[in-house]
Design brief:
The protein is mainly α. The chain has 2 domains: 62 residues, no CATH class; 28 residues. It is flat, with a radius of gyration of 18 Å. The two termini are 26 Å apart. 10% of the residues are buried.
Length: 93
């Protein structure tokens, strides 16, 4: 992904490190470059905002145990999606 505008740190490099940035696991210099880039780049900022929301949701959800029937339904749906993806890939070959 790229917004098309020149930045000191390219969009793809920022997005590769966004999880580390969100978890505060980047080196100080990288952290600052990513912060500056996100301040300048609306497409990356939108992507960052989405990633941050997802991480918070996952963190909150991981503290709770899903009911067994919900877990079974989710696993079944995941399996169905995998089969659909495999079918599409097979047809594409």
């Amino acid at each position: 992904m790229s917004c098309g505008d020149p930045h000191e740190t390219p969009c793809d490099e920022v997005l590769e490190k966004v999880y580390l940035y969100l978890d505060a696991e980047t080196e100080a210099e990288d952290h600052e470059h990513i912060r500056i880039h996100l301040d300048e780049c609306a497409p990356c900022l939108r992507k960052y905002g989405l990633e941050q929301i997802v991480m918070k949701l996952v963190a909150r959800s991981c503290k709770e145990t899903a009911p067994a029937d919900l877990r079974e339904r989710v696993l079944l749906k995941i399996q169905q999606v995998r089969v659909e993806i495999e079918q599409v890939e097979f047809r594409a070959e």
